[in-house]
Write a structure and sequence with these properties.
By secondary structure, the protein is mainly alpha-helical. It contains 9 helices and 6 strands.
């Protein structure tokens, strides 16, 4: 089975899994929820209790307490991606006399992304305190269903404004709370939602710029090599002329490394941060994923 066939099977599997997750998300008693619950019960009988406690504590430490681990991981991924881009793409593009501005565009986008990252990480997300609670109560009307007037947060001891929520990680109430992002190690609320949106958009633009420059390099190399008039040896040692299918396969195998690098640099926007982008952007016509 050749590469293209395997890739199409893999793509169909990924799309089917994503569609299943989207269909099952939001249903309290969905088939997916029941399956995960039953699988957890079976695994609890096999996995030793000591290992279960250690795993539970590790996961709680990672996702339910403030930690710089994901921030360090994010910076390390971006450093690795741009190190490979500089070493394997930028140098060769300069030799092929690519326009310097096009080659520097990913670095400029990276600088903007890091700026948004710092602002989003260090900014006050909209913490509700005793001094500003009275003014925040008047911002949004209470619907009487999800948000009711007069409710007091038992932890912060302040009246909860509409569309606010207590974050168990930061241990504060946040106005217009969206979610707690482990990648920026901060809550996303009314005060930093706009910067968070710019952060995600700049990540996407950075990944797209990396992929575009790499694709241009590969196309230029293919044109200069005159590979369409060449031949190749298959696994049995037989010589075949280069065809379109073979060229697409080889090009994709080369391009997938760069594409994966760009996606890794955009990895914080995957999962719940992409969903948060849809919540925050609203009518910006962005997508959501679970």
């Amino acid at each position: 089975m050749d590469f293209l066939t395997l890739f199409l099977i893999y793509l169909c599997f990924v799309l089917a899994t994503a569609a299943l997750l989207c269909l099952c998300s939001g249903r309290k008693e969905s088939f997916l929820t029941r399956s995960v619950s039953r699988a957890s019960q079976v695994l609890s009988l096999v996995i030793p209790s000591q290992l279960q406690r250690v795993t539970h504590r590790a996961l709680h430490r990672l996702f339910h307490t403030r930690s710089c681990l994901f921030v360090v991981l994010h910076v390390a991924l971006q450093a690795a991606v741009f190190g490979e881009y500089t070493w394997e793409v930028f140098v060769y593009c300069r030799e092929l006399q690519f326009h310097l501005l096009a080659l520097l565009l990913p670095y400029l986008l990276l600088a903007g992304n890091l700026g948004c990252f710092m602002l989003c990480s260090r900014a006050n997300p909209g913490t509700v305190t005793k001094s500003n609670a009275a003014s925040l109560v008047e911002v949004y009307a209470y619907d009487g269903v999800l948000f009711q007037r007069g409710l007091v947060c038992p932890t912060c001891s302040v009246e909860k404004p509409a569309r606010s929520k207590h974050c168990s990680v930061c241990r504060t109430c946040v106005h217009r709370f969206d979610h707690h992002c482990v990648w920026v190690n901060n809550c996303i609320g009314a005060s930093n939602a706009g910067v968070f949106l710019l952060y995600l958009l700049s990540l996407t633009a950075t990944a797209a710029a990396l992929a575009a420059v790499t694709a241009a390099l590969l196309i230029q190399v293919l044109l200069l090599s005159n590979i369409m008039h060449g031949s190749y040896l298959d696994a049995q040692g037989q010589e075949h002329p280069v065809e379109i299918a073979f060229l697409v396969q080889v090009s994709w195998e080369m391009f997938s490394r760069a594409l994966l690098a760009g996606m890794l640099s955009c990895s914080p926007s995957v999962g719940r941060d992409c969903r948060a982008l849809g919540h925050t952007a609203g009518f910006w016509l962005f997508y959501t994923c679970n």
